[in-house]
């Protein structure tokens, strides 16, 4: 799918792009960081990748038609490359450190978040991607469909199956504890 506009679209006046991009950045940057964390990036890495993505988007702003989908695609590629570099440098898995928890319940909240992320990662790829695009990046079903090359009905079906599977996985984990 081509996420860029045709050349006629790049004739928009440049002075209006700064305000438009700034509004987009303020609303979308936290969602992009959340998406990256959801797919496994550590917080600082997610912020760095999101910032690099937004810089690239700013440079291409007038030529990009679907800003959210473009940013998602670029961020996902940048994160994949960074993760590959990290895997090549070191093979150390991160661990949850109980000593860093200062308020009661923080550790339990972290564990619930980890359980949710683990469950999301166990979903089939299509369901996982649809779920993340819809709920983390706040794309509409139509935008998700365009981005993934699916029909909106298929997107809704994937969402329904993903939510059902997540509920079952999380209920099963809680009943085992």
Query: Beta fraction of the residues?
Result: under 5%
Order of helices and strands: HHHHHHH
Sheet of most strands: none
Proportion of residues in helical segments: over 70%
* Shape category: globular
Specify the number of helices: 7
Mean pLDDT: 78
The secondary structure category is mainly alpha
Poorly predicted parts: 4-14, 91-101
**DSSP strand tally:** 0
What's the end-to-end separation, in Å?
45 Å
Radius of gyration: 18 Å
In short:
With 177 residues, the protein is mainly alpha-helical. It has helices spanning 15-38, 43-60, 67-89, 106-122, 125-135, 141-148, 152-176.
Features of this protein?
globular, mainly alpha, 177 residues
Describe this structure in words.
The chain has 177 residues and is mainly α. The protein has helices at residues 15-38, 43-60, 67-89, 106-122, 125-135, 141-148, 152-176. Helix 4 packs across helix 7 (152-176) and helix 5 crosses helix 7. The N and C termini lie far apart (45 Å).
